[in-house]
UniProtKB/TrEMBL annotation:
Residues 28-44 have a biased composition (Polar residues). It comes from the Eukaryota. This is Uncharacterized protein. Residues 1-44 are annotated as: Disordered. Residues 1-11 have a biased composition (Basic and acidic residues). Gene3D superfamilies: 1.20.5.340.
Length: 156
């Protein structure tokens, strides 16, 4: 697979990929000269197999270029979407912060109302007790003399 990552089947370690220039050197037939070759060679005439190889390489390069353009467009659209999401998230964060503040305020009011409810219950029980005492203190017995309530054995 051109441009793909290959791995050694036995060890599972990634194999070394050939560079484009190395692949060209491997595809060339060995020269008849026995000495070291110069870094640049001038090609006087290309054979039909070399021309076909060059055409195939050019086709591969243009295919890779088209794929890169497609990836560039995809990256651009992802960048736009990411910016949009960041703006949405910033808006959500501000709304959540506002809601958290409101919940904190409501919790404070609930605590205050619970305290007032306890105070009202206490005051209500105190009011009932005071009303009962007032009623007991206002009881009058008619036709009974006050001293008749005293027991016979009581010295007072």
């Amino acid at each position: 697979m051109p441009g793909g990552r290959t791995s050694d089947k036995h060890s599972g370690t990634p194999a070394r990929q050939l560079l484009f220039s190395e692949a060209l050197q491997h595809s060339r037939p060995p020269s008849s000269a026995s000495g070291p070759q110069p870094a640049t060679q001038t090609c006087t005439m290309a054979g039909p197999t070399q021309e076909a190889t060059m055409n195939r390489i050019l086709q591969e390069i243009s295919a890779v270029g088209r794929r890169l353009e497609g990836m560039d467009n995809a990256i651009t659209s992802l960048t736009v979407e990411t910016k949009s999401m960041r703006l949405d998230i910033a808006g959500f964060q501000s709304r959540v912060s506002g809601l958290e503040q409101r919940v904190t305020n409501v919790e404070g009011h609930i605590t205050t109302l619970q305290d007032r409810d306890q105070e009202l219950l206490y005051l209500h029980s105190k009011l009932i007790d005071l009303e009962d005492r007032r009623r007991r203190d206002n009881i009058y017995f008619f036709r009974f003399p006050e001293h008749s309530f005293l027991l016979k054995g009581d010295p007072s």
